[in-house]
């Protein structure tokens, strides 16, 4: 069995440290760390050949042996590693610190712990050394020999994390961050979240923290702390608040599982409060009441109005609840499941959302999840005969499905519900002049109406014009339609009745926004300058304006740019 090591060296000369890093590939695990001394000796000759003392003792004993008296080996966390330590015994992430003094290490005034701490911090700040460190931990940071049990792996990972947190409490997070970077195994996610919090609060580096949290959630989608911290970052960006809602909904869904080691009540309360804050920002009580009144008289028309309301007000949870009830009556079970998967946990004491959700799952699967939802609803309303009837039906269906020859439960298709990001290139016509800008709308649900895009453009244009942004009603937005002409990247027109999922690849909208529009004698709008001319100016700006070029290139390189083609390829 073989293992990759990274030997991170620091040479102390005249009060200055000279760092270097040497990766050693495929070292037999039974070998000792003499290989680290050999790498350090070779590096020292390269850096200080004219200045390395060439005493008789050195010539007799050999450079590697002489180096041992002037150096000390530690793990990444600072634990002393004797020269006889086997390669298999080096703790994760397999980084060996070789601290080389000018004279004997035993007589050196600089303690090994301080030397190691300085080398760790510098290695993570220097771009070249950081690149070598990241490459190593990505490729070989976790070493699992066959003789190491999972319990020992977990214990070692927890010990490394606890050591880093102890340093954080005693010396501050600036000293602990390098130790947390080296934590692998089961405590990896907790360590990365801790670093992200440090970057957010003390360094003000939200971009780095967001990348770190994205990686944690890619590996551990149910990690509640990572979702809470990512949502806190996204909430500060007006264009990403809908994306933050998805994280908060995932948190309340995890809290609703009722597991013994689940998140504390305070986490659920914080996520719920943030979700209702978003609801108050997006909801329109008058429009919702109007749609509900119509639904009582005409279910078909009421369903359309509630659907439109939910599409243009993506975080109005009360509207989604009402739409789910109407959708259940119309046997739109997939829509009910999509609407209530997370939203139902915003109503932990109301049996109705869980009952509606359980009915939809009982009809369209998976049946085990339906039983859990119906059992929860029954715990809230134990005397409700309808809930008991549906729970009995679901349990009998499980028995029937498990019988030989029974059909499988239906699978919900969610392809048309996939979220995507849009890039809106705006040509704003004000006082006879044209200015170009770019607006990024992150992770909008595919069935959100383009009226939401129009509303976002309107808010940005109000800010650019120095006006106070106003809350547009749906009627106002549709009346504003003639002032904002939308088309896709290829120039094909887009209509307000379309949805985000209807926008062709690469998910770029070109919007021409007029401050005012004159009309001719027949009442038809007259555009000055022409929309074609404005679109041409926007395309020119998308090739010359550095900020717009960067946003466009970043979007075109993302997976959202090929969303529809990838879904179509997967479907057929």
Which structural class do you get from the secondary structure elements?
Answer: alpha+beta
Low-confidence stretches: 54-61, 402-417, 468-475
Shape by Cα distribution: globular
Average pLDDT for all residues: 84
For the CA atoms, what is the radius of gyration?
31 Å
Number of helices: 24
Number of strands: 10
Describe the largest sheet: 4 strands, mixed
- Strand fraction equals 5-15%
The portion of residues assigned to helices is 55-70%
Describe the oligomeric state of these chains in a short phrase: single chain
**Straight-line N-to-C gap:** 44 Å
Short description:
By secondary structure, the chain is of the alpha+beta class. It has helices spanning 34-48, 56-61, 63-69, 112-125, 127-140, 150-171, 173-181, 188-203, 206-219, 224-235, 241-255, 265-282, 285-297, 299-312, 317-329, 333-343, 351-364, 367-380, 385-402, 450-464, 474-479, 531-544, 546-557, 563-571; strands at 2-13, 16-28, 71-75, 95-100, 420-430, 433-444, 484-488, 508-514, 518-519, 525-526. The strands form three sheets. Strands 2-1-4-3 form a four-stranded mixed sheet, sandwiched between helices.
Question: What can you tell me about this protein's structure?
Answer:
The protein has 572 residues and is α+β, with helices and mostly antiparallel strands. The chain has 24 helices and ten strands. The chain has helices at 34-48, 56-61, 63-69, 112-125, 127-140, 150-171, 173-181, 188-203, 206-219, 224-235, 241-255, 265-282, 285-297, 299-312, 317-329, 333-343, 351-364, 367-380, 385-402, 450-464, 474-479, 531-544, 546-557, 563-571; strands at residues 2-13, 16-28, 71-75, 95-100, 420-430, 433-444, 484-488, 508-514, 518-519, 525-526. The strands form three sheets. The protein has a four-stranded mixed beta sheet with strand order 2-1-4-3, sandwiched between helices. It has a four-stranded mixed beta sheet with strand order 6-5-8-7, with helices on both faces. The protein has a two-stranded antiparallel ribbon with strand order 9-10. A hairpin with a 2-residue loop joins strand 1 (2-13) and strand 2. The longest helix is centred in the first third of the chain and has 22 residues, at 150-171. It is globular, with a radius of gyration of 31 Å. The model is unreliable at 54-61, 402-417 and 468-475 (pLDDT under 50).
């Amino acid at each position: 069995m073989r293992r990759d090591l990274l030997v991170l060296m620091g040479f102390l000369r005249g009060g200055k440290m000279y760092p270097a890093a040497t990766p050693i590939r495929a070292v037999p695990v039974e070998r000792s760390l003499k290989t680290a001394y050999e790498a350090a000796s070779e590096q020292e000759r390269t850096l200080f050949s004219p200045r390395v003392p060439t005493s008789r003792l050195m010539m007799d004993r050999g450079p590697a042996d002489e180096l041992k008296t002037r150096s000390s080996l530690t793990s990444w966390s600072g634990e002393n590693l004797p020269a006889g330590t086997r390669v298999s015994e080096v703790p994760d992430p397999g980084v060996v610190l070789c601290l080389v003094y000018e004279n004997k290490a035993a007589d050196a005034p600089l303690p090994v712990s301080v030397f190691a701490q300085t080398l760790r911090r510098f290695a993570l700040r220097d771009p070249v050394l950081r690149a070598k460190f990241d490459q190593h931990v990505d490729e070989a940071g976790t070493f699992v020999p066959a003789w190491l049990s999972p319990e020992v792996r977990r214990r070692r990972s927890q010990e490394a994390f606890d050591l880093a947190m102890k340093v954080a409490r005693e010396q501050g997070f600036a000293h602990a961050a390098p130790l947390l970077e080296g934590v692998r195994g089961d405590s990896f996610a907790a360590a990365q979240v801790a670093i992200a919090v440090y970057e957010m609060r003390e360094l003000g580096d939200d971009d780095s923290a967001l990348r770190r949290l994205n990686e944690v959630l890619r590996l551990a989608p149910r990690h509640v702390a990572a979702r809470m911290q990512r949502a806190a970052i996204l909430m500060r960006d007006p264009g990403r608040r809908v994306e933050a809602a998805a994280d908060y909904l995932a948190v309340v869904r995890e809290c609703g599982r009722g597991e013994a080691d689940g998140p504390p009540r305070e986490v659920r309360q914080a996520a719920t409060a943030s979700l209702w804050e978003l609801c108050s920002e997006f909801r329109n009580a008058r429009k919702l009441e109007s749609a509900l009144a119509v639904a009582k008289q005409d279910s078909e028309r009421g369903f359309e109005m509630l659907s439109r309301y939910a599409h243009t007000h993506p975080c109005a949870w009360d509207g989604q609840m009402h739409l789910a009830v109407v959708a259940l009556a119309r046997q739109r079970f997939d829509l009910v499941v999509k609407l209530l998967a997370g939203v139902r946990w915003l109503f932990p004491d109301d049996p109705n959302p869980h009952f509606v959700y359980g009915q939809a799952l009982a009809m369209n699967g998976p049946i085990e999840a339906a039983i859990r939802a119906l059992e929860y609803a029954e715990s809230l309303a134990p005397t409700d005969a309808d809930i008991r009837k549906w729970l009995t039906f679901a349990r009998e269906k499980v028995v029937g499905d498990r019988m030989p020859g029974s059909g499988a439960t239906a699978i919900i298709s969610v392809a048309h519900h996939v979220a995507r990001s849009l890039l809106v290139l705006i040509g704003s016509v004000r006082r006879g002049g044209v200015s170009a800008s770019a607006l990024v709308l992150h992770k909008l649900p595919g069935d959100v109406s383009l009226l939401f895009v129009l509303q976002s453009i309107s808010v940005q244009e109000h800010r650019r014009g120095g006006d106070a942004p106003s809350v547009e009603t749906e009627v106002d937005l549709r009346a504003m339609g003639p002032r904002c002409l939308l088309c896709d990247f290829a120039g094909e027109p887009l209509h307000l009745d379309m949805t985000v999922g209807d926008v062709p690849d690469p998910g770029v909208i070109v919007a021409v926004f007029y401050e005012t529009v004159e009309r001719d004698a027949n009442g038809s709008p007259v555009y000055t300058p022409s929309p074609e001319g404005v679109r041409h100016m926007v395309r020119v700006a998308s090739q010359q304006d550095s900020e717009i070029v960067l946003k466009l290139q970043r979007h075109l390189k993302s997976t959202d740019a090929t969303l529809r083609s990838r879904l179509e390829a997967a479907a057929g």
